[in-house]
Sequence to fold (124 residues):
Amino acid sequence: MDEQRFVVTDDIWARLEPHLPGKKSDSGVTGKDNRLFLEAVLWRVRTGLPWRDLPSEFGNWNSVFRRFRRWAKGGVFERLFEEIRGEPDFEYALIDGTIVQAHQKASGAKGGLRLRPSGAPAAD
Fold:
């Protein structure tokens, strides 16, 4: 695993760490490595691959997934987004293709592409 490709910088981590569960000051179980876990979640979001394809360096994929679900249900990610919103760095722009819609005419429906006799597309 190339740690130079990790997304969470030391500055960002310093801002996020106090908002994460499993700190030594929290009651209950201490999180094993919150920073590595967060990198695993971001890796999954960036690549769009299934949890089962998570590199083993991040730990057991099912454990990471179950922890992700606990954090999602507990509102942890909302707290993190609230902390870092307003300061975009535009290094990454993620768009989930499952919500992107195109109008039926965007696919060339009903009539398709009209060509000039020369073979070039006709201007409308």
